[in-house]
Amino acid sequence: MRSQDRDRNRVPLYLQVASVMRQRIESGHWSEGDKISTIEELEAEFGVARITVRQALDLLRDDGLVESIRGKGTFISGRPKEKHWFNLANDLESVIESVRDNVIKIVSIDEQAAPPLLQAGEGVLAPDYVQLRSVQFSRREPFAVANLRLSREIYARDRRTFNRKPALPRIMEMPDIDVARALQTVTIGVADPETSELLRVGLGEPTADCRLVLVDSANVAIYVAEFHYQRNCFALRRDLVPKPAKTTRKLAKAG
């Protein structure tokens, strides 16, 4: 493999090439039925070895996006699955409603979990945490992997529900839980080996990562969750025209 092939970054080159080509299909740069560049042209364009281009095309072919016809070339044969149906909510009540009916599959539970690393403003640690790792599904397809560290004291109150359903709505139903702050951070990441397997995406493919921390009235971080969303399902939509100010209210309990 060429030296430049080794030096770019740790995401496999064929995944990088496949990602660019998939974006061209998604954006309409390549339409269904179009003949795309030859392997030799793609090799020159991306500055990669021929085997890298072939591996990228194999991924797109497996996704039903391209087909090769002997003696004629490679053609766009389909469109990516429905995109950007999941819009990240920007207030706590909307977040709760967006996850309430999610179907989850618990991957692992660690009742002796290490505490989360808290950022400035995220409160102080609870005495102990339970870690729940799960996959969330829509239409029987996985769209997010969640890593949640939940105060063990809260987990022990209703472990059966926490092991079967999204934790956030149940927490907000508890009458003595007073959430003072709900801190949300959104970043761009890549799928590590476990996440790529659980989401059924390529290793190193981009993900939309959301961190949500609930801090109670005693300044304790009772809920620290990290969600990794498939990039094709995720959107962040905001109305940038200011709305008239509303009366500030205390965070309401859901339910």
From TrEMBL:
Membrane-spanning intervals of the chain: none
One Pfam match, by short name? Answer: GntR
Ordered alphabetically, the record's keywords are: DNA-binding, Transcription, Transcription regulation
Q: Does the keyword Transcription apply?
A: yes
Which ranges carry the HTH gntR-type domain?
11-79
InterPro entries noted in UniProt: Bact_HTH_transcr_reg, Chorismate_lyase_/UTRA_dom_sf, Tscrpt_reg_HTH_GntR, WH-like_DNA-bd_sf, WH_DNA-bd_sf
User: Which residues, by range, are in coiled-coil regions?
Assistant: none
Query: Which Gene3D superfamilies does the record associate with it?
Result: Chorismate lyase-like, Winged helix-like DNA-binding domain superfamily/Winged helix DNA-binding domain
> What name does UniProt use for this protein?
GntR family transcriptional regulator
